[in-house]
Amino acid sequence: MSQDGECPFTGPNGPPKFPFSRDSQFKLPDEYQAAREGCPVAPVTLWNGQRAWLLTKYQEYCSVLLDERFSGEFARDDFPTVTEARKAIDKMERAFVGMDNPRHSQYRRMFTKEFTTKRMLALRPQIEALTDGLFDRMEEKGAPADLIADFAIELPALVMCDLFGSPYEDHTFIAKCAAGRHGMSQSVDQAAQSAKDLVDYCRTLIDEKERNPADDMLSRVIEDQVKPGALSRDDLANICSMILRAGHDTTTNMIGLGTLLLLEHPEELNKLKDDPDLVPRAVEELLRFLSPVQFAPRRVALEDVELSGSTIRKGDGVFAVSASANRDPNEFEDPDRLDLSRDASHHVAFGHGIHRCLGQQLARIELHVVFEKIFKRFPNLKVAEPVETLPFKYDSQIYGLYRLPVSW
Questions:
Q1: Which helix (H) or strand (E) holds 206?
Q2: What is the extent of the structural domain holding 349?
Q3: CATH of the domain at 155
């Protein structure tokens, strides 16, 4: 299977174009299963004609993300992207998410103490209070409510504002910038403007924190890293942009998708209602099953690499597809079945290796609180419109729902 034509995944016209269309709610594109079964390191063609490879199985996924023969430098001309607009904003990225070691670790270490499990657990009472307050407001407003607008967007925004020290009234702007980066249909100029606007916003926020420091992450990083000269203000603005958009967008989508998925699986939901201690395990299974980040992590080969019968040439792009790896039957029995009782803790929804999500513990705690409380507070929660009419984010690199009308 070392040549494209020998891979049963490819058709008579060569490697298929990627990304694949997705239009079936919780179902992954059929091509992922076909690749896992016939060619787990599968060739594809990108929008610009570049050849890339999909890693669709768990073992290959983890192997490549630990392999220094593959680069995660966004700024490289041969770094793979799913759209022309994404190529443009990758070139603009200055945060460590788009760097290799040693630069990646140099910058990431400056922020790790802000995201320790201990520090994140200390936020839990505050997250619980924010959750209760939003549920109070939703109940007072009355059914039907939009769980996305009224809760799923609001909770991560409030948490990030408190953690980061950004004004709550700015969260709509931050969410708009994040959506402008992650969409699949934006023009190059639109995506670039969204990226620039959020970095500029962070520069303004840094200026404010320098004048009026407070007990928040941004103020502490300015004191510990910027003032001693270890981190420039411009670098901090770019890292600030990365953390803000990640903290708002992915958790919002997990809350919406997770709630709908449980409502669509009443037997699994009843397990959760009957046993609150199941919540941590249930959250890991929801993360495995949903994997909202669709086309990442990404790498480019620095030399020719033989992998599972395929030859990845120097300069070829690689997409380690988290959603597909998390449905690998060699790792997860009956992987297309939601099973809240399974141990899914080794899933790769947060990535793998050096770029594993910095904020994963915060995301987990938010999701623990939400799924501990939502069905206690609204035991008769249900979707207020036919599920087949709900607007899924088929056009975004971060999968989710645009709205989720619910009643109780």
A1: helix 188-211
A2: 4-407
A3: 1.10.630.10
